[in-house]
Design goal:
Number of strands: 10
Oligomer: single chain
Number of domains: 1
Radius of gyration: 16 Å
Number of helices: 7
Distance between the termini: 32 Å
Bound molecules: S-adenosylmethionine
Helix content: 25-40%
CATH topology: Rossmann fold
Structural class: alpha/beta
């Protein structure tokens, strides 16, 4: 998590040590096939993809296996996550995943080193950052996308001010108790940041466990 929010990872994501550097997130393992089914229609037949906040690194080997003509670049900011992503990547034996790189998605300016992306995918980060950080992330992603590139954001969101469940509300409150500036975003707020970044907003996809995938395209 960003250095100014120590301990956020402890309340926000479970990452269980496996062998060597590998970490295991049960939720990443559970949701990845549903994510793959949902994003399939948006993945081009070839090109390059940037995964922001790859976490334990358990999503990207499946993406790379199912979409073999895409070169996948995983990223994160935490050293233990970067090591875990590298370990999962190497274990996969796939040659269409690059070794992970450090990328702070809230840092204005990251797009210049990561231009020409046909796909940018991000899961489970927006509730862990502030609204201005989300806006910076979205405007950088819009810059980094190539023409017709697609931006896929998976996670839990509010509908306006409504939570999808009591558990979502409780999780949001636990995040805000720790760091008042973070928490769930309304999907309308995400979409409005995408429109401001001149992305075309497509229909959100309903996912299991009250999650969504928000889809936007570079015109
Ligand atoms: C809840 S985990 C989600 C991981 C993975 N995407 C998933 O869905 O299982 C959040 C991840 O975001 C990373 N992260 C936090 N702040 C970030 C930032 N500013 N830029 C990039 N990654 C960040 C954390 O290190 C962590 O790996």
């Amino acid at each position: 998590m960003p250095p100014n929010r120590p301990n956020l990872s402890k309340i926000a994501s479970t990452a269980i040590p496996k062998d060597h550097d590998k970490l295991h997130a049960p939720s990443a393992f559970r949701n990845r096939e549903a994510i793959i089914d949902a994003i399939g229609p948006f993945i081009p037949s070839s090109g390059k993809a940037l995964e922001i906040a790859s976490g334990t690194g358990e999503h990207v080997p499946r993406y790379a296996a199912v979409f073999p003509n895409i070169i996948w670049q995983p990223t994160d900011i935490e050293p233990d996550r970067l090591k875990s992503i590298a370990a999962h990547t190497i274990e996969s034996g796939l040659d269409n995943i690059l070794l992970p790189i450090f990328l702070d998605a809230c840092n204005p300016g990251w797009a210049v080193d990561n231009m020409g992306q046909d796909v940018i995918i991000l899961s489970n980060l927006l509730h862990l950052i502030s609204e201005p950080e989300m806006q910076a992330l979205i405007s950088q992603a819009a810059l980094a996308l190539s023409e017709n590139g697609v931006f896929l954001i998976y996670g839990p969101f509010m509908h306006g001010t409504n939570f999808a469940s009591d558990d979502d509300k409780a999780f949001h409150e636990s995040l805000q108790n720790k760091y008042p500036e973070i928490g769930y975003k309304a999907f309308q707020a995400v979409q409005s940041a995408q429109m401001q970044a001149e992305l075309e907003v497509l229909e959100p996809i309903n996912m299991p466990s009250n999650n969504f995938i928000l889809v936007a395209k570079k015109k």
